[in-house]
Specification:
Lyase 2-enoyl-coa Hydratase, Chain  A, domain 2, 2 domains, four-stranded mixed beta sheet, 12 helices, alpha/beta, six-stranded mixed beta sheet, globular
Length: about 260
């Protein structure tokens, strides 16, 4: 039984929710394992087309739990062995469905790194974002130095990492860390509406599009373009592609089945 998060499914949408608001929704080993298990189950569920990640309470996540930061509790050899093959939060990037993150409050340290592993981020007004590790004599250790730079560019990423200071939601939107900032009371509804819009698109095409962008960023441009072409050719053989063409010609909404 999960103790750090809750997973619910409604139609084509799977919601994953951090459920320890009294402790600030910390990131610890129990959470990492439960998140991996949830991602594996969702990825294998053909009915799920989009994932929505959010948190209970007024804080998205304070980041690492006490044991993970304590010199007595941190085992460097165990950390390296556990995450060498699959770094923290990689399961969110590797899952086939797009992941929309509704950031309901402050996202700090590993909490921000968790959000960075998602595909689309929407923030509530008043939320703040920070990677404070260098102020503690540490380095962001769950993808912050890599995913943030790929998202907002080297200069803005270095500013956040080196200064270890927080930025507000509006600044996060300006630099491209989040795509929208909305009143807190509207956050969940707006995020769900966005997720449902994605779910209405061709599910196979959406999976391929996510994969093309994710893998293409790590390839030289000529190889990435060939990979995009390969996925396009495969997509032409699917029923959804044929349905999309028929719906366009008949001037109606397509009825995608995911095949």
């Amino acid at each position: 039984m999960a103790i750090t998060l809750a997973v619910e499914k409604q139609g084509h949408l799977a919601s994953v929710r951090l459920t320890r608001p009294e402790a600030g929704n910390p990131i610890d080993r129990a959470f990492l394992q439960e998140l991996e298990d949830a991602c594996a189950a969702i990825n294998d569920d053909a009915e799920v087309r989009v994932v929505l990640l959010t948190a209970d309470g007024d804080v998205f996540s304070i980041g690492w739990g006490r044991d993970e930061l304590s010199p007595d509790g941190f085992d460097a050899a165990d950390w390296h062995r556990r995450f060498e093959a699959s770094p923290p939060f990689a399961c969110l990037e590797e899952i086939g469905q797009p992941v929309v993150c509704a950031i309901n409050g402050d996202a700090v340290s590993a909490g921000l790194e968790l959000a960075l592993a998602c595909d689309v981020r929407i923030a509530a007004q008043g939320a703040r974002f920070a990677l404070p590790e260098t102020a503690l004599g540490l380095v962001p250790m769950a993808g912050g130095t890599q995913r943030l730079a790929r998202l907002v560019g080297r200069g803005e990423a270095l500013r956040m990492v080196l200064l270890a200071e927080s930025i507000d939601a509006e600044e996060a939107q300006r630099i491209g860390l989040v795509s929208a900032v909305v009143p807190r009371e509207r956050l969940l509804a707006d995020a769900e509406a966005l997720a449902q819009r994605i779910a209405s698109r061709g599910p196979v095409a959406v999976r391929y599009a996510k994969e093309a962008v994710r893998r293409g960023l790590d390839l030289p441009l000529d190889e990435a373009l060939r990979y995009e072409t390969d996925l396009t050719v495969i997509l032409q053989t699917t029923d959804d592609r044929a349905e999309g063409v028929r719906a366009f010609l008949e001037k109606r909404q397509p009825d995608f089945k995911g095949g």
